[in-house]
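Memo to structure team: turn this sequence into structure tokens by end of day. - J.P.
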Amino acid sequence: MRIRAGDSEFYRWLLHHAWLMNWDLDAVVELDGVTVPRRRFFLVWASIALTGGLIPAQTGQLARGFGVTPDEVTAAYTPELQAATIDELNQALHL
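Reply from structure team:
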């Protein structure tokens, strides 16, 4: 069973760290003429991390933004990424 990004521990980790940084999670950002809730950006980050992991540049960007180390970011999403991968392998065995 694939973990939905919005239900993931990593998404909650992102929101928690944003809250620790006093970011207004309900604020909206205008992006190419479209108003996007800031919370949505964290949902996108979680989706990327849980479907293939983050590249070092992405991990570094999140780490700098949250004032944590890249290893802390990686440790936050790796368990769910591994669980999703194992689940996919198990499903493939039953095809």
